[in-house]
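Workshop exercise sheet. Pairs work together: one partner reads the sequence aloud, the other fills in the structure field after running the prediction. Swap roles for the next sheet.
Pair: D.N. / O.F.
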Amino acid sequence: MMPTLFRRPMPFLLAALVCSVFGTNLCTAAEKVLTAAAYAADITPLKFPVSSNGQMQDRMVSRVHDPLHARCLVLDDGKSRIAIIVSDSCMIPREVIDATKAKIEKLAGIPVNQILISATHTHTAVSLAGVFLSEPAPGYAEFYSDRVAEGVAQAIKQLAPARIGWGAAKNPTQVFNRRWKLKSGAVGNDPFGGVTDRARMNPGYGNPDVTEPAGPIDPDVSIVAVQTTTGQPIAVLANYSLHYVGSGVPGDSLSADYFAAFADRMTQLLHATDVKPAFVGIMSNGTSGDINNVNYSLPKSPMPPAEGQYKVVADSVARTAFDVYEKLEFHNWVPLSVREQELELKVRKPTPEELTKAEALIAAAPGGKLTTAPQIYARESVLIHKFPDTVKLRLQAIRIGKLGIAAIPCEVFAEIGLAIKQHRAPAPTFTIELANGYNGYLPTPEQHALGGYETWRARSSYLEVGASVKIQAVIDELLKDGAK
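Structure field:
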């Protein structure tokens, strides 16, 4: 076997030669080499039918429209090695993510606190979390964890000297705030019998009861691009604040939605179809808890394209990302760091009276079948009652040179992501949501006051009203230069 020294990349040999001839004071920069690799691990289930969540009712799917992947990016600055994994999943509970990270550490040697795992939030993936009437698909969590760990290990085998760049551009054409304010006098019903909501999700085209969107959008398409030292594309990690698209995918099928279509389109634009190792495009979800792809300011619904709306969105966002890529400044080395902090937050629980009412609703359901929103939310209330009084969230910040990446385990409202970016400006920043766990929607206190679907108490929305303020304060601290 070749001695260890000669199996290392050539830049290390050059650095060693410089040091021996000119002394250690002149060789510090020459020693710094960034290595990178990417790999797309197939996480498509092998057995059907399988549960697919993302709707109120559970959906059992029997076929694959397009495969699901966990797209793995590994970066190493010589001191720190980090892994960023973006999975074609709707949401992933913390216990599954923690188990996956432990397998990665055991198989690939990356410490658990140097790993970020997030879900794209495609609504046509396999159920990993229990939400509404969907419960985790039996056996899939272990299968998922194994495949992801193997994917990271494969990426590590491909590590090679690389250079990296990042940037962003705006594309406001594919994102719209889905929450609309109700006119004075319009009735805002909730599934608990209340009529105090002042905002409505997805109100429909030309709805006379609404006035304006209840919040902003974040139009940024942010990217981190990695290529070999000769310019061959390795990976592009993108970030866009769009909930998902869905249109164009059959209801009985699994699909990675626009997130995978973006990856395919990015591969085409970069002429990277045949590169070895394979190029990996990655689209992560930004802060899209109140954002979708439907423009309800229009008087009526536009005709969907024959090839599927998700492909139209993917093409538009990929073109923006490609324009950013073309203008990037690439760096041969940058420092990498990951910082984490646990935050304990209160759980919004039903009162004894609300719990009694919920139990009665469930008991009265014909044949025990829950079909209405009040019945489904009654079940959620019973399940939330069994939660602990507080939960711990893992918050994380990754630094890649001057770039900051926040990771939050919630469906984060766009205005929170904008505030995180503004707090760190002019340094570039973006947020990956649904990362390192799943703790439901994250509205601001002001959005909680407006009510609406995203605030209704359920396993999809249960954190204390002030959670966003506390989370943002921790993220801002973690992203600071020199923070511990």
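Discussion prompt: Residues 350-385 form one domain. What would you look at next?
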